[in-house]
Specification:
Elements lengths: L2 H13 L6 E5 L11 E4 L3 E5 L4 E4 H5 L1 H12 L4 E5 L4 E5 L8 E6 L2 E6 L5 H10 L2 E2 L5 E3 L2 E5 L5 E7 L7 H13 L4 E5 L1 E2 L2 E2 L8 H4 L3 E2 L16 E2 L4 H13 L3 E5 L7 H6 L30 H17 L5 E3 L8 H5 L1 H9 L6 H17 L3 E5 L13 E4 L3 H9 L4 E3 L2 H4 L26 H6 L9 E8 L7 H8 L2 H10 L7 H9 L2 H6 L15
Parallel strand pairs: 4-5, 6-8, 12-13, 12-23, 13-18, 19-20, 20-21, 21-22, 22-23
Antiparallel strand pairs: 1-3, 2-11, 3-10, 7-8, 7-11, 9-10, 14-15, 16-17
The protein binds acetamide.
């Protein structure tokens, strides 16, 4: 045992408890993803035996922090024994640490966790869960180890697109579990788009009665072929609360997205008054194909009230989301150009360009959200709005140039450049069936190495997050979704947790390889190095 660990063991022995039996020597080493910022483990030494679970004492189970730690450990899959007089676990708040920082000490006699706040307990718990190995007798054990860790970015996420292909509540929870394992802490939930509105809004029942239904779905390779299988799907408000609660139990915050004012075909189909009814050929429908469509919200009283009402219900359903996503991407101006009402609105407000209508919507959203104590996050197109509120968070998707512009304008930003973090793109050049948009990025494929090594540097310190987006035009089911997500999710998690630190792809490859038993334990259909799915 090295000196650091020897002194740790000595320290722990004096304060506790020591009812645990040491494990046999632990010969393997943990393969943690993301790698902690600082760590040491003892090789070939006895560790903490887990075959009897982790015992907690009554002091731990009666303190708020202790109970939160127990919940986090159980959510991470560790077994906790019912309260006893003596325990294996010590949990402490350490006020001088950053809220998301944690330290761990594992000795043969116990586990000690120190956190900057209760929020960090989840990361600590997942580190322990990932560090479970077998001792020389084949029993589950944690190696004696010491970890001091903190994320470099506060928002580490995955975006799920539920409009193009819905994802059930059960499958969403499965994805949340996987995210938590790798310390991803934000689910960006894309809940509406041209192809379907998926969130129940009590004040506007037609959004789901009409807007959640479409006649069929375009083929993901050849858009002109549409099947005639109706799609009808939405999340009730109870479903939403269930997903939000499950995420919370894993330390994940759900950020909902309501697309305003574009990608609005489904909403406008449900409520034509929301659109530009006087524009030529106005005949909205829930779209069966893919792309950017002309139906956008109209600058009218109905639409403004709609935004107030919908965002009010959304804020209530997502009480922990510090910012709410208002979309803002890919807004065609055609209808505004052709609608006499939209033109009259422009004149009334001294506007000279149709893009100013979008700016008006952006400011309205910011104002409404502020009333609810929330900030706004939007796709990088929202930066076009003059005097964009300084607290608006920019989600940079069109590339690192847009990220750097946002930083220069002093906006906090979340990185998800299409060139590396669009997990709907193929992972190799020889993937047999290429989706219709293949090649859009200038890279012929995005594999985990590309994710890990892509240059995401932005001068200054405005980057608060990083996420991968899984647009689902070409992801019809969970099998495909898992294939697109795993193992790239691991590279994303590593890069976001250790943002700005050097990456070593060869070393990472070993840790990635070591995840296979975990992926298999979940029966995941992950992509293997030979490009094959695990479960074809
Ligand atoms: C986007 O990919 N349109 C944000």
């Amino acid at each position: 045992m090295n000196n650091v660990l020897r002194s740790l063991c000595a320290g722990l022995c004096t304060v506790s408890l020591a009812c645990a039996l040491p494990s046999q020597p632990v010969t393997e080493q943990p393969a943690l993803i993301p790698a902690p910022i600082q760590y040491e483990w003892a090789v070939n030494q006895p560790g903490f035996l887990l075959s009897n679970g982790i015992k907690v004492d009554s002091a731990t189970s009666h303190s708020e922090l202790g109970r939160a730690a127990i919940r986090a450990l159980m959510a991470a899959g560790l077994e906790i024994q019912p309260e006893e007089t003596e325990g294996d676990l010590q949990v402490q708040l350490q006020a001088n640490q950053a809220p998301a920082a944690y330290s761990l000490k594992v000795t043969p006699l116990g586990i000690s966790i120190e956190v900057g706040s209760a929020e960090a307990l989840h990361a600590a718990a997942q580190t322990l869960a990932q560090a479970v190995l077998k001792d020389a007798a084949g029993q589950p054990a944690l190696p004696a180890m010491w970890v001091k860790d903190a994320p470099q970015l506060e928002h580490r996420g995955i975006m799920l697109d539920t409009s193009r292909h819905p994802i059930s509540v059960a499958d969403t929870k499965r994805i949340l579990n996987l995210m938590a394992r790798y310390k991803l802490n934000r689910l960006h939930w894309h809940l509406c788009d041209d192809q379907g509105w998926r969130i129940e809004i009590k004040k506007y029942p037609l959004l789901t009665e009409i807007g959640s239904k479409r006649k069929g779905t375009a083929c993901w390779i050849k858009q002109t072929e549409v099947d005639n299988k109706p799609v009808e799907f939405y999340y009730t408000q109870d479903d939403i609360r269930e997903v939000v609660a499950h995420a919370h139990s894993l330390g994940i915050i759900v950020i909902p997205e309501i697309e305003i004012p574009g990608h609005a075909s489904a909403a406008v189909t449900a409520y034509p008054q929301l659109g530009n009814q006087d524009s030529p050929g106005f005949a909205p429908e829930v779209v069966t194909g893919w792309g950017v469509f002309t139906h956008v919200m109209g600058p009218n009283a109905f639409a403004f009230q709609f935004i107030e009402d919908v965002l009010a219900e959304v804020c209530a359903l997502f009480p922990r989301a510090p910012y709410i996503h208002i979309g803002g991407d890919e807004v065609p101006r055609d209808q505004w150009q052709q609608s006499p009402a939209a033109q009259a609105f422009m004149q009334q407000h001294g506007m000279t360009r149709e893009s100013q209508i979008q700016d008006y919507f952006t400011h309205l959203c910011a104002q409404v959200l502020r009333k609810h104590g929330r900030r706004m996050v939007g796709w990088d197109e929202i930066m076009c709005a003059p005097q964009l509120p300084q607290d608006a968070v920019v989600m940079a998707w069109r590339g690192m140039d847009h990220a750097r512009i946002a930083a220069r304008r002093d906006h906090e930003l979340i990185l998800c450049p299409i060139h590396a973090f669009y997990f709907n793109f193929p992972q190799s050049t020889n993937e047999e069936v290429k989706p219709f948009y293949s090649g859009l990025t200038g890279f012929d494929h995005i594999d985990w190495k590309h994710v890990l090594t892509f240059d995401t540097s932005v001068p200054g310190n405005k980057v608060i997050g990083m996420q991968a987006n899984l647009w689902s035009e070409c992801i019809p089911d969970m099998k495909k979704l898992e294939y697109m997500l795993v193992p790239r999710i691991c590279a994303l998690a590593e890069k976001a947790w250790r943002y700005g630190l050097p990456v070593f792809p060869d070393e990472f490859a070993h840790r990635l390889e070591a995840q296979t038993p975990y992926f298999d334990s979940l029966q995941l259909n992950f992509r293997q190095e030979d490009n094959a799915p695990r479960r074809p």
